[in-house]
Amino acid sequence: MTQPIRPVLPEALSTALRLAAAGVPVLPLRRGKVPFGNCPACTRNACGGRPHMKTAGPCQCPALCHGWAAATTNPDTLTSPAWATAWRQAVAVAYHPGGAGLTVVDLDNADAITWAREALPATRTVKTTRGEHWIYRGTMASSNAVRSGVDIKSLMSYVRYLGPGTGTMTELPDAVRALAVKEPAPIRPARSAVAAPAGGGPCLHRRPAFLERGVAMAEQRIAEARSGVHATVYRTFLAVLSTHGRCGCLTDAHAARLFTAAQAKGESLRHCTDAWTNALTRLGL
After folding, report:
1. 139-145, long-range: CB within 8 Å, 24+ apart, which pairs?
2. What phi and psi values does residue 218 have, to the nearest 5 degrees?
3. In this predicted structure, what is the pLDDT of residue 187?
4. Bridge partners, residue 125, by sequence
5. Residue 9's pLDDT band (cuts 50, 70, 90)
6. pLDDT grade, residue 104 (50/70/90)?
């Protein structure tokens, strides 16, 4: 009996399917080693954007859109006609480290590698064109230029796949998390603030009405977003936390209101949680 002839897959797609089967979300990269651009319907996120990891949301486009958020482990998506042209033109495969539960410390030169060997615990290492990728188990906010020649790639980011690497992968250490913590800008007291009475009382630098107004404005900002919903949600969370996150007045009920507003725009609960965590990390809270 004649066996059916299997189609020859592009090398990049073959690599992508192997990684996806191992639970690593992947996407193709075009010339310049960057993701393919959005289709016309998704240009400037006119579709409302795509939530984390292509879960259900406002964008139902089957094309390869929205950069790192298009990364997937679904073989049907990877081999779909909508992605076929991209794989034929692909120059490399990328993966979303945060989606695989990983963090990559991108060391861009010899000095950065020397520093890492002295400051960070050993882990799985992948050689790159100019340096090395150090891969840890665990996720955090991505951040570029945390020091000279050092970037952190994890949540809401992509990394070019350059092979499995060598060495045993270790847990993400506090030394790496600390690299992304920026010194927060000082918060100036409001002119209308009143001094707290002796023995405790209301917030020392904000009237309760100010917090309520701030949360309501944040809900409205998210609700009125017409494009770039991901970025709007993150920036709004960051703004609320930077103003109200240090005094203890911001409660779980306030956070739930913001999550509800974001989910009403199609954001997944996981994306809301990631954005909130990233904002907390950015502010050192």
Report:
1. 139/97, 139/98, 139/101, 139/102, 139/103, 139/172, 140/103, 140/172, 140/176, 140/177, 140/180, 140/281, 141/180, 141/277, 141/278, 141/281, 141/282, 142/98, 142/180, 143/179, 143/180
2. -65, -45
3. 39
4. 134, 166
5. low
6. very high
